[in-house]
Amino acid sequence: MTDSQLPPRDEDGATTGPYPEDDDRPVEYETVQTPVLVVGAGAAGARTAISLAEAGHEPLVIGKRDHGDAHTTWAAGGINAALGSLDPEDDWTIHAADTLDEGHFINDPTAVELTTQEMPDRIRELDEWGMGLDRTEDGKVNQRYFGAQSFRRTCFVGDRTGEAMLEALVSKAQGLSIPYRENVMITRLLSDGAAVHGAVGYEMESGEFVLFEADHVVLAAGGYSALYNRHSSRDDENNGDGSVLALEAGASLMDTEFVQFHPTGMVEARYGEEWAGRLVTEAVRGEGGRLYNASGERFMERYSPDQMELDARDVVARAIAREIREGRGTENGGVYLDISHRDDQYVKDRLPKMYERFADLGVDITEEAMEVAPTAHYSMGGVDIDFETGETGIEGLYAVGETVAGVHGANRLGGNSLAETVAIGKLVGEHVAEQVDADGELPATARALAEREFRSLERLGGAGGTERPQELLDDLGDVLWEQAGILRDESSLRTGLRELEALRERTTDLRIEGDRTGRDFEFAIDLSFSLTLAEALLRSALKREESRGAHYRTDYPDVDPDWRRNILVDAGDTGLTLRTRGVPDPSEPVQEAVEEGYELDYHHLE
Q: Catalytic residue numbers?
């Protein structure tokens, strides 16, 4: 297969697309100057901005949606910290060991250890900021079991933890008067491959172009799990934009083949298209929920008799997929998740959002089971960074949160996504604050690049072909689900790459209805990011000839010790290029915790 291309760019780097070039007439745009631009308004972006503000700087945070409406709110079940509220023997080294074990030891050890050491203080901080964490009878922060954790380590606010956490962070940010702009979409970073000078995008409600002049840009724009046609994200989020913005600016991506398939997504045939793949939080299983097939067998007894439903997410997801594939699933293509054996009030208290959601659908989960099946949920891959600083290797460009790779390795430990955002976000914000100097003047080359990008976006808005962007995105989701889903092999991945090229060909005939405030225009930009990230994913999955964590190759079903390496992706002159890098060993205290072999005994819940 020949090297494929990144989205079309002219010789100066602006997007071109298949549309006729206009002359270099003047283009109207707003110019905004800020010392630090934070792209993404979820937990990672908010915590980074808080550190900057506390250091005396005034970052500008921008988001694609309304203020406070970020994907963080969809993280329901909890956030990890080794507090020892219920299990005093737990500590940060065991948390780190669990994280490395779940990540199959290709995590960045520095990232893991920074996160797990930071988290007890970050939980206490969030508590002080009004997160409202659930408490034990004696007033301690309560903690629950989550899959593959050795102890009860997951702090929570019922089953709305992410929502409560973001509310606390937004309130803190507002108290610090951190500027925020909502409904802004970034289409390109202004980078010469060595340094970043800002970013360009447009106001989604007015269609007006905006140039952000900034010597420091922090990407906190989420992951790429929504590339799959069955996923737990909103359709217009987690499409890889943060990672691809960094890649096109000159940074490297890492571990893009690792996408976590959460075991329990809602089944479309049972609950309707609106609910297809929507997450049924792991908190249901953490509170004792049981999985049954259509024959009433509690099938995890066959796959994981010790950890049962609380084994690693990849293990449980593959078990469910196998039950369905071998004909033991429901007629709707799922299995049953049952919490009805627990006391009714307990379920309502611990899982209020799940109770209310299913009640609205005519299902009383205190009396009957839910139908679930695996769903694409989280991307372990992303931008390769130095975790002590957030630096990407491009001067002035940083990344944090699900936009980056390293903390989670080959599979994410449940409850660690929220943890990473605040633990690393605080550290990155503190480091960037030390780098901020007087505002520099925007180089003429960067302004010229911005104006070429704006003219390119104008041409995109006038596309009059036959292919609608949403249909192409839907087809891309089908390709990834079928060819690079829970089970993969060389044949399926090569088929996926061929089908991806066919989709790229179809983009030469795009049709954009409406103006720049419409969804067609937004989806067309999403499509450019998504196609690039999908290629990185497929090519990395093809290169990794083993099975590890969430990456399961049926033609290479075993873990290969020689593949304890990360795959990095760069934007070469003729397309994406791949290379590998070895993984350092953890510190001695964490290695000792790994060797101790701590493990959850599920039957404590019985």
A: 262, 285
